[in-house]
Amino acid sequence: MNRREFNQLVAGAALMLPTFKGSPQTLPTPSQFHFSVMLWTIDHKLPLERCIEIVAAAGYNGIELVNEYEKWSPEYTRHIKTKMRSLGLVVDAIAGGRVTLADPAGSSKLIAQLTAHIAIAKSLDCSRIILTSGSRVDGLSRETQHAACIENLKRLSGLAEKNDVEILIEPIDLLEDKSAYLNSVVEGFEIARAVGSPHVKVLCDFYHEQRASGNLIEKLENNMDWIGLVHVADVPGRHEPGTGEIDYRNVYRKLADLNYRRFIAMEYYPTVDPLVSYKTSRLVALEATHSVPAPYKLTSVG
Questions:
Q1: With a threshold of 0.85, does the pTM exceed it?
Q2: In this predicted model, what pLDDT tens digit does every residue of 179-192 receive, in sequence order?
Q3: Domains of the chain (ranges plus CATH)?
């Protein structure tokens, strides 16, 4: 799909948008797909509660948070949870990690960090915590840092198991962060397999992985058991799927073929009205897997 086709889909989706009246408007979705939005990508000028309303009105199931909750009082947290429940939304993941996984001497700091984020996650009724690897450690070999990631995550996995949460390790491409240790899902999957815990999986961010090395479909085929979450944005620009070089229709079909049953999280900057953008992106995914009922079928998608 090229940018022109995406714009045609946007126009079609805009015509199908319901008027938002305080409750989610959804279309039937395949049983294995759940959709969420990483909230930081929505216009920061909009109030938080309006952002949540947009996600619900676009027919999504969840939101993901980075640090929005850090200034919330207990009363405001309860208020937001009540509003989300009324809209049929959950917090499916929070990001929480600034200590490097690759430091052999960093386990105590990592445990303290994860302990703090587990408390936050539980307060939000969330069971998934995203961890990036952090920076490389100067003076240590790649092999030493790889082993440190494994050993540190083995220690963290015990804490995760005790609290019934899941750790999602997220590689970040080197164009985004030149200092990042973990920059491809290939090594992420190697680390997760070596840890060998059902509480440690990989966040496959298609945007980062396409920029790092591509070959997205084969990586899904070879590693589905270790994928805990996928993030969606197109390359270049981190915009809607269909505006760049990734054929997301094939990606969605492969996820469906492999019986992926977790969240598909949109983490992109909308180029049009966010409500129209997110609804269009969801409908594109459903159409690609033949899950949109006839009245809503987007015939311009090949």
A1: yes
A2: 999 999 999 999 99
A3: 96-232 (3.20.20.150)
Give the model confidence (pLDDT) of 117-149 as tens digits: 999 999 999 999 999 999 999 999 999 999 999
Q: What's the rounded Cα separation, in Å, for the pair 155 and 201?
A: 14
10 pLDDT band (50/70/90 cuts)? low
